[in-house]
Amino acid sequence: MVFVFLLLRLSDHVYEQRLQTAADNFIAAASKLPRVSGCLPPCGFQSSGAEYNCITCQYDSCEFPLDCPVETINVTEGSRSQIRCNETFNISEDVEVIWRFAEEIKTQQVDQFKEVTVGDDRLYSIPSTRLHHQGTYQCELYSAERSIVRLYFYLSVTPRVKVGRSQLQELFDRSLLPRGRFVPEPASAPSSALTLLLLICLTASLLLFLLSLG
Ligand SMILES: *[C@@H]1O[C@H](CO)[C@@H](O)[C@H](O)[C@H]1NC(C)=O
Ligand SMILES: *[C@@H]1O[C@H](CO)[C@@H](O)[C@H](O)[C@H]1NC(C)=O
Ligand SMILES: *[C@@H]1O[C@H](CO)[C@@H](O)[C@H](O)[C@H]1NC(C)=O
Q1: For residue 67, how many C-alpha atoms fall within 13 Å in the half-sphere facing its CB?
Q2: Most ligand 1 atoms within 8 A of CB, residue of 70, 73, 74 to mutate
Q3: Residue 44 included in any domain
Q4: Spatial CA neighbour of 50 closest among 34, 73, 66
Q5: pLDDT per residue over 1-24, tens digit each?
Q6: What region holds the Ig-like domain (predicted)?
Q7: What φ, ψ does residue 60 adopt, rounded to 5°?
Q8: pLDDT, tens digit, for every residue of 114-158?
Q9: 136 C-alpha vs ligand 1 centroid, how far in Å?
Q10: Which of 86, 155, 165, 181 would give a disulfide with 177, using CB separation of 3.0 to 4.6 Å?
């Protein structure tokens, strides 16, 4: 009886020791994993910079928000727009990209956006930008079905008319004399001379016609 009891205690002891060894090995391995230094602000779920938390037995991410600040892009109507979903931290190659658009407004409110494309395209390209393209573009990156980061770009489209008008304004300003007087319009002179020439020509042919009637 005593012998059996001793045997049980012994196996208990062996089991405990094995468990302790396994735990020690695990902690040693976990502590060799990359530390928080890999975190790149200001946004995104960054698992590469995650630290193993020995108390919760989980990887803590860098604890940045998913939403990045809005970046403004200025384009002129009719020109090409290119928006790149370029997160700054390192993520795996295997990502899915969802592009969304909120027409006209500058916003980060998720419910304002409509889905445009789903796929692996990191570049959103508009060959000829129109006024209705103005608004906020959001790209959301997913890795293994998990949302990693959301980038925002506000595309501001300057109308062509406005550009033309500002060029006209420049021309007007340049035509002003230093003392604030206008330069005489040189274009009006040749046109009135041409009118006069035409008039003379017409009168002459009319005269000739009347003469020929005799
Ligand atoms: C875009 O235009 C706005 C106003 O015209 C200006 O304040 C801003 O600096 C411009 N942004 C870039 C990135 O050129
Ligand atoms: C990311 O893409 C945006 C829009 O295409 C561009 O304005 C910005 O310079 C890019 N940033 C980097 C770090 O490449
Ligand atoms: C990103 O990861 C790749 C491989 O996973 C590595 O070769 C590269 O150096 C990393 N870049 C940065 C900036 O950490």
Answers
A1: 10
A2: 74
A3: no
A4: 34
A5: 445 454 556 567 766 777 677 667
A6: 65-149
A7: -90, 130
A8: 999 999 999 999 999 999 999 999 999 998 888 999 999 999 999
A9: 15
A10: 181
